[in-house]
Write a structure and sequence with these properties.
The protein is of the alpha/beta class. The chain has a domain of 210 residues: NAD(P)-binding Rossmann-like Domain (Rossmann fold), CATH 3.40.50.720. The protein contains eleven helices and 13 strands. The strands form four sheets. It has a seven-stranded parallel beta sheet, with helices on both faces. Helix 6 links the parallel strand 5 and strand 6. The longest helix is centred in the last third of the chain and has 24 residues. It starts with 9 loop residues before the first strand and ends in a 16-residue tail after the last helix. 46% of the residues are buried.
C-alpha cells in the first residue's frame, strides 16, 4: 500500500508491544506499510509479542522501527511524530487492566486519559494530515443503560480505567469536531488471543487449566463467575481498526461479535477441552472482586458491519481452542523443565491479579 508519491504508508503505533499492537503490526506489514512503534525505556525488554517480527532480517531496520517515548510525556510523542511523519496513528497504549486501575487510578488516568490528550495535541501541533485511531473500550458502558450496546448507548463507567477511557473518547470526538482531525474511536468489546496478558481473566483461565492438566498447578482463584462478556479474536478486531482509517469520513464504531458468554461458560469450554471438571479446581476469592462490578457487556456492531464491511471470522469455541492449544504448548515446556530439575514458576503462583 503506497501514498500518492509511491512511497509506503507510514503508521505509528503506541502500545505496539501489546496484544493488539502485535496483531496490528502484522496486518500493516502485510499491506506494505512501514511501521513505527512506541516503546518505553525500562530495565527489561517487553517486546516478546513482536520479537518474531522484529528479528526478521527483511523487516528489521527497513519496515519496522521502534522509538523510545512515553504517553505521559507529550514532548517525546511530538518528537517522534516530527521524525516519523506518519500517515496513520493508532493509539493503543495504556494501563489497560481494569482490576489494576482500582489499585493505581492516578497512573491509569495519566496513561489512558492524559496520554491520549498528549497524542492528539502532538498531531494537532504537527499539522500533519494524520488519520488517528483511538482504542476505546466497551468498559465505558459499565452499568449498561440498554442491551445490546451500540454507538448511541450512554456511557456509565464503573472503574478508573473506564472513566479515563470515556475522557479519551470525548477528547477524540472534540479534536475531530474542533480541529477537523480525521479521528476515529473504535469501541472494542473484549478481544482475546494466545497473546493476551496472563492477568486477564480469559488467559488466566487457559494458562491455569493447562497447568492443572499436567499437574503443575492445583487451584485457580477467580472473582465474579457470573459476569458476561462479548468475546472476540484480537486478530479480527485489528482489521476493523485499519478499516476505520480507510474510510472517506471519520466516525466511531462498536466492534463486537454480538454473543455474550459468562465466565462459567468460558470455564466449561476450557476445562471441557481438557476433559476436566472445573468445579474441582476453581475457587472464588473475594479479593478478586471489583469494587464496582460490570455484569453484562454485549455489543451491537451493525454499523461497523455495514459501513466497514467488517465481520468477525473466529467464533467463541474456535477462540477458546486456539488459546488452550497455545497454552498447552507452554505448559508442556514447563513440564519438561520441571522433569529436568529446574524450578518452574507459574504465571501467577496460583493466586494472581484480578480476573
Amino acid at each position: 500500500m503506497s501514498t500518492a508519491g509511491g512511497k509506503p504508508k507510514k503508521a505509528f503505533l503506541t502500545g505496539i508491544t501489546g496484544q493488539d499492537g502485535s496483531y496490528l503490526t502484522e496486518l500493516l506489514l502485510s499491506k506494505g506499510y512501514e511501521v513505527h512503534g512506541l516503546i518505553r525505556r525500562s530495565s527489561t525488554f517487553s517486546t516478546d509479542r513482536i520479537e518474531h517480527i522484529y528479528q526478521d532480517p527483511h523487516i528489521q531496520g527497513t519496515r519496522l522501527f521502534l522509538h523510545y517515548a512515553d504517553l505521559t510525556d507529550g514532548h517525546s510523542i511530538a518528537r517522534v511524530l516530527e521524525q516519523v511523519k506518519p500517515d496513520e496513528v493508532y493509539n493503543l497504549g495504556a494501563q489497560s487492566h481494569v482490576g489494576v486501575s482500582f489499585i493505581n487510578p492516578v497512573y491509569t488516568a495519566q496513561t489512558v486519559a492524559m496520554g491520549t490528550l498528549n497524542v492528539l495535541e502532538a498531531i494537532r501541533n504537527s499539522r500533519l494530515p494524520v488519520r488517528y485511531y483511538q482504542a476505546s473500550s466497551s468498559e465505558m458502558y459499565g452499568k449498561v443503560k440498554e442491551t445490546p450496546q451500540n454507538e448511541k448507548t450512554p456511557f456509565h463507567p464503573r472503574s478508573p480505567y473506564s472513566c479515563a477511557k470515556v475522557y479519551a473518547f470525548w477528547q477524540t470526538v472534540n479534536y475531530r469536531e474542533a480541529y477537523g482531525l480525521f479521528a476515529c474511536n473504535g469501541i472494542l468489546f473484549n478481544h482475546e488471543s494466545p497473546r493476551r496478558g496472563e492477568t486477564f481473566v480469559t488467559r488466566k483461565i487457559t494458562r491455569a487449566a493447562t497447568r492443572i492438566k499436567l499437574g503443575l498447578q492445583e487451584k485457580l482463584y477467580l472473582g465474579n463467575l457470573d459476569a458476561k462478556r462479548d468475546w472476540g479474536f484480537a486478530g479480527d478486531y485489528v482489521r476493523a481498526m485499519w478499516l476505520m482509517l480507510q474510510q472517506d469520513q471519520p466516525g466511531d464504531y462498536v466492534i463486537s461479535t454480538g454473543e455474550a458468554h459468562s465466565i462459567r461458560e468460558f470455564l466449561d469450554e476450557v476445562f471441557g477441552l481438557l476433559q476436566l471438571d472445573w468445579k474441582q479446581y476453581v475457587a472464588q476469592d473475594p479479593r478478586y472482586l471489583r469494587p464496582a462490578e460490570v455484569d453484562l457487556l454485549l455489543g451491537d456492531s451493525t454499523y461497523a458491519r455495514t459501513r466497514l464491511n467488517w465481520k468477525p471470522e473466529v467464533g467463541f469455541k474456535q477462540l477458546v481452542k486456539m488459546m488452550v492449544d497455545a497454552d498447552m504448548e507452554i505448559a508442556r515446556r514447563e513440564e519438561t523443565l520441571k522433569k529436568a530439575g529446574h524450578a518452574v514458576r507459574g504465571p501467577e503462583m496460583e493466586r494472581g491479579a484480578k480476573g
